[in-house]
Amino acid sequence: MTFKKYITMPVRLTLSLVAVIAGFLAINLVPIAMAADYEALSSIERQIVHVTINKDGSYEEVEELTIHIKSQQAVESRSQADIAYSSDHQKVEILEAYTILPDGQKVKVADNAIRTVEDDLASGATMFSDLKHKIIIFPNVKVGARVYYKVRTIEHTPTYPNHFYYSHHFSPSAQYDYVEFNFTYPKDMPMRVSSRDVSGKKSELGDKVVYQYIFKQTDIKLSEPSQVATVDFAPGIYFSTFKDYIEYGQAYEVRAKDKASVPPNVKKLAEQITKGITDRKKQARALYNWVSREIRYVAIYMGSGGVVPHAADDIIRNRYGDCKDKNTLLIALLKAKGIDASSAVINSGSAYSLPELPVFTPFNHVITYLPEWDLYVDATQELAPFGELGDHIVGKTTLLTGLNKIGKTPKLTPDNNRIITDINIKILPNGDMQGTSKTIFKGNREIAARYKYEGHVTTRAEKMVEDHLYKFRQTGTGKFKTTNVFDLDTPFELSTEFKLDPITNFPGPGAMTVPVGLSPGSITLISFNKPKDKFYFPYECTSGYVEENTTLEFPKKAKIGNIPKSIKYQEKGTEYTSTYQKISDTKLNIKRTLKLQKPSMVCQPEELKHWQNMYQVIKKDLRSQIFYE
Hints:
Structural class: alpha+beta
Number of helices: 11
């Protein structure tokens, strides 16, 4: 298991060959639109996988793969195969590789065209990795050709000793002409087996159990905006020797618990950080802030480092670590102050459900749970205030490994996820506009805002203003001002000053829509993203509240005429209001609110129609014009 900041790792490192194949195929199995259906740029014509599992969790996998090239667009990417593996856990051998030309002729891959390379990410300053890649460069690849390879992978050192776990999913966007998976393991191995929408059969051969699964898929569908991870709904196969997720969590805890011990230097540091603080929750906040800001994030994927953190005192000395290291140090510092905490293993991508059997998928991240306050914190996010979680980990199941139970992070609501903006705009006699805005953020939106505006005082400041104005089809000048983005104890606020070029003619008569200026423009941004006509798969949705209050003042010689009608629209967990109030002949207040209240972070395809209706209401209101003389 490997935890990685903000990035969903491949399904697994053990049995990584199959997982990497899925990524390899995804690139050019993106469909192209035809008259009514979709046709893949390339297809998995034949895939045969044999996995022989040993009682200690080690295994040998032999896999044959044939890809049919159907389009020129697929030629370049299909000319190479990239097979990733953990050099500390696995050995990989290319047994055969060749190109099959359209006339049936086989052109063998030259020995020097099979190369072993280091992982590109391993060379970066924020990642250390034992991943290596076998690169196969196929000769004479063209439309109508097929590329073939046969690979043996030996997992000699299981991530969790004496345990085996595996999952494989079939992408709805890929064409599978024929796929066959075969698994063989000892009868006395406590294996649990499950599948979803994949036909299989079980047999016995002497003291072995054999499972065979066959899968075909020619009806493919495009990936969709905001689609949840395919592991949540796609056809799949699952094997696990863990009896349940509690035992799976215990396996992690056994290898991680001792790393959070409290030697003298950890105790000393905890006392220094909390000096003068007597309130326990404030102590926890101070310790969290220190780990979040002082320990630099560096992803580490070296051997068992994928699941085993470093010792707390080593992390202090190095001043860097990955998510599990930050979590371990925070637990140790809390323990030094007598505050209980547990690791919380979670998915940080777009997966929201757990497979029936305990497998690695979809876990790729670890945060910290404080049972005293029923509170989750994520020290990996340097700009997340204490107790606030990013949108990639809210409303998700967790494994509380130190408590031997399953938990769930809180979901977003209109009360804990808010943006409220006040905008004042004065129109000058020549049509230029001068304005200010002030925005307060709460919860998930505050985290995003801290990251977004962190560079507003750097050399990027002018470019940030230009980009923001351009996004809303405006021209002008201005500046952003914020509270200290690094002060996690002070609520984050954004203030702006701006001058906009005319968007309508003065003196009148004329008409205009409501300008955004340098305010976040959250509601206007919605109008730029028209929903799709139809979804086939579950998709990510959110809950929250946006309020925009605008005061628009016209020149003294102008007179406000007709104004848009106020709106209140409600439908299935969404509510939009827009009110226009004339204060005087030259001053108008506009208040727009959007409230989203969803039961979970996942919406079903049939719910899309409700958002389509709401989108049209918002779009129409934003087109509404204010008339003046």
